[in-house]
Amino acid sequence: MDIKQFAVTQTSRLHLRDAADELMYADGDQAKPIAVNLYGPGSKQFARAQAAQQNRMVDKLKRRGKAEQTAEQIASEKAEFLADCTAGFENMEYDVLTGADLARAVYADTSIGFIADQAAKHIGDWGNFSKASATS
Which contacts of 97-100 are long-range, i.e. CB under 8 A and separated by 24 or more positions? Predict the structure, then answer.
């Protein structure tokens, strides 16, 4: 049996929920879901994001000799990692930002922190990237 038949997809689509756990839409007709497409743990993008995250930590240790971080630094690291794992957003605007700048701003904004939490939880589950679960 070819074990590659169990390989996961590179990305997965996550339909975002608001703070009240309701699915979010960009319109009143619920025809435009607000979603994020994320690179999963089986992708090269995810591996690069993890490596970059670890390299940032090593650099901090070299500079300061300690691993302690402030809450702001932790939030910034999380936002950077998630931005590196984001293929793109659907039906979402944040100021006039696009691409990685949009992702960093969304994930760093604590007033909508539930989005970063959802994205982190989603990419932490290999099952969300199985071929049977290509969308969420």
Answer: none
Q: Look at residue 102 and tell me if it is in a domain.
A: yes
Q: Which residue range forms the structural domain that includes residue 29?
A: 9-125
Number of domain units in the chain: 1
CA distance 73 to 71: 5
pLDDT digits (tens, 9 = 90+) for 5-29: 899 999 999 999 999 999 999 998 9
Give a yes or no: residue 133 inside a domain: no
- For residue 136, name the pLDDT band (cuts at 50, 70, 90): very low
